[in-house]
Design brief:
The structure holds two protein chains of two kinds. By secondary structure, chain A is an alpha+beta fold. Helices cover about 20% and strands about 35% of the residues of chain A. Classes of the chains: A alpha+beta, B alpha+beta.
Chain lengths: ~160, ~210
């Protein structure tokens, strides 16, 4: 078992086998894990917003689903991953508070997950599994050794996708 | 041009925002103490500018389970208000409100019944009402809060909701935070999180 590398909010990290990647307390944010099954090079993105083109201040690439996935693929390729082999698993995008609201920002979880899937499709990256939506937070761990994406939530059994 | 720059806040701006926290949270604390008939202390408010990767640090860890009550604010000022309690404090508050034996059992993590959740929401409603009316009186601006929504989950996941709002402006979350407590039984936080434009309005209304 290698090191557990922590990915913060609006952050991304890549690693080689046998290291693992984790991000704690995903709420409406989405955790996008990419994986090259041959080299076992892995990457994890914790993005907060769906679309960088809607926002003026978009210098932090990892904040957005679109530019975050671009950057994640770039860094993984630099480490030796083959872009054509990449597969994806995503989790998060919850709606933490049940608001009867018109405020778009509270439905951002759903939009984050959609934006991530759209971007993956553009790259022809296969989405192997997802655990998105609903109303609870998730802590995720991605193991480069096995490609397992482990999801932990409060008061729920641990899930592996 | 926005008066507030998330990268360089002036000391005088910090002071004014702190004073808002002082007046708002002071009123809210009094309301809480009166409603529950307990003595509630309040710390000096803090204007917190938190980078996203360290957002939970003022309370604890991202994975800590807490009770969060969120209200949306609309009117002259837009934004959110959030209360956070740890599980033990939330049980204690509910027990005080429902006039039950204040008995701290070992099982502080027990689930809340529907009745207890509704009681917690009501606490949020009354306390935020007094916070906002104090703020409204001070600034002369109108603010209305939404019906509260409650969530019991990981701290990081709850704080991601206001953080995402601020993600549109930069990589930091700015909020006015006050801690309150009753001896060893209750520790909780009031967070007032106006949108960035609303900070400007608040400062202007106070002659900044």
């Amino acid at each position: 078992m290698g090191n557990m590398i922590k990915v913060g909010m609006a952050d991304l990290k890549v690693c080689k086998c046998p290291d693992a990647l984790t991000t704690l307390g995903l709420g409406s944010c989405v955790g996008v894990a990419l994986y090259d099954p041959v080299t076992k090079i892995s990457g994890l993105l914790h993005c907060m917003l769906p679309d960088s083109t809607q926002i003026r201040n978009n210098s932090n690439l990892a904040k957005f689903a679109d530019t975050g996935i671009d950057e994640l693929i770039r860094q993984m390729a630099a480490l030796g991953a083959n872009k054509n082999r990449l597969v994806a698993k995503i989790a998060g995008g919850a709606q933490m508070f049940a608001m009867t609201t018109t405020n778009d920002s509270l439905r951002v979880g759903e939009r984050n997950a959609e934006a991530a899937k759209k971007k993956l499709k553009e790259y022809n990256i296969r989405l192997l599994a997802e655990d998105c939506g609903l109303n609870y937070g998730r802590t995720v761990e991605f193991y480069s050794e096995t490609g397992d994406y482990v999801i932990k939530s409060v008061g729920k059994p641990v899930k592996t996708i | 041009m926005s008066k507030i720059d998330l990268e360089k806040l002036e000391d005088s701006q910090f002071d004014v925002l702190k004073e808002i926290g002082n007046i708002g949270a002071g009123n809210a604390t009094t309301a809480l103490a009166t409603m529950l008939n307990i003595k509630v202390d309040m710390s000096v408010p803090n204007v917190a500018l938190l980078p996203f990767d360290n957002i939970s640090s003022f309370i604890g860890s991202e994975e800590q389970t807490v009770v969060g009550i969120l209200l949306e604010i609309q009117g002259d000022i837009d934004g959110m208000m959030m209360f956070l309690f740890d599980m033990k404090s939330a049980h204690h508050l509910v027990n005080s409100l429902m006039m039950r034996d204040v008995h701290q059992d070992e099982n502080g993590m027990a689930d809340f019944s529907e009745m207890e959740m509704s009681a917690l929401n009501e606490i949020g409603n009354i306390v935020s009402g007094s916070y906002l009316s104090a703020l409204s009186g001070l600034t002369g601006m109108k603010m209305v809060s939404s019906v509260p929504a409650l969530s019991i989950d990981m701290l990081g996941a709850l704080l991601s909701v206001p953080a995402i709002e601020f993600g549109k402006y930069g990589d930091k979350l700015l909020m006015i935070q006050s801690e309150f407590g009753e001896d060893d039984f209750v520790t909780g936080y009031f967070l007032l999180i106006p949108e960035l434009e609303s900070y400007d309005k608040i400062l202007t209304s106070l002659g900044m």
